[in-house]
Fold this protein.
Amino acid sequence: MPALPPLPEVCRLSATTIRILAGNPSSFTLQGTNTYLVGTGPSRLLIDTGEGRPSWLSALQRTLASESATVTTAILTHWHHDHVGGVSQLLSICPNTKIYKAEPASGTDQLDIHDGQRFQVEGAAVTAYHTPGHTTDHMVLVLEGEDAMFTGDNVLGHGTAVFEDLETYVDSLDRMRGLFSGRAYPGHGPVIEDGRAKVAEYIAHRRGREEQVVATLRTGGDVSPTPTSSSATNLGSTPMELVKIIYRDVPEGLHPAAARGVVQILKKLEAEGKAVVDGQDRWRLVTTDRSAL
């Protein structure tokens, strides 16, 4: 990925939304995790809490002071540390905040979120939707007044997202596409002005990657349900071998993450009866010999 454009630590994105960076830039978090302060009155909604870095807490405190506001509700889009790690820091300055998260962590005071739940503060209202795939507990939030969506890590401002389950993830993207028509406020990276188009782009990208995996496997030869001499000698490809071909223009440091995505594609193909794997994690396509038809 080319060098990313800098983002300001604190930026007002609209009349109701302020983005505060979590102060944790990296190759996986981009310019850092985005946290969002939502509303216009003295009681605000916070979406995600970053990792709890001192710079984030300081920026949040300055922003709340300038807005003469406090946080009364916080919503965590999913369980990853760079989105939930700042909860204790938030509570240190806003101790009465109610923390909401789907599938709440045990031993905490977190409150569960149900699909379609609505949260309202002065000047803004959001509705939460369960959109698993990146993680099982992933939620997105639609900002009613702007017809915008806080997409969490399902859709990013740069590049593409990783996921735990490909089919579930694509189903969630398809659902997201029908829930809004305005901006996307991602968990990482800049605002996406045409959010719905970006979601559609993500769906097309995932389908394209699957086609690339199939095409790359095909160049190594197919294996039929009853192997012939030619198919039996095909050694197949490991996920990392596929990555080195398909993602050859991507820095090697990102190849392990890409390999996890390739494994998800391979498992999907296996479930559909289109691929098989041996004990050495070598994958091959399955074809049916129709020459006798």
In short: Confidence is low (pLDDT under 50) at residues 221-233, 289-293.
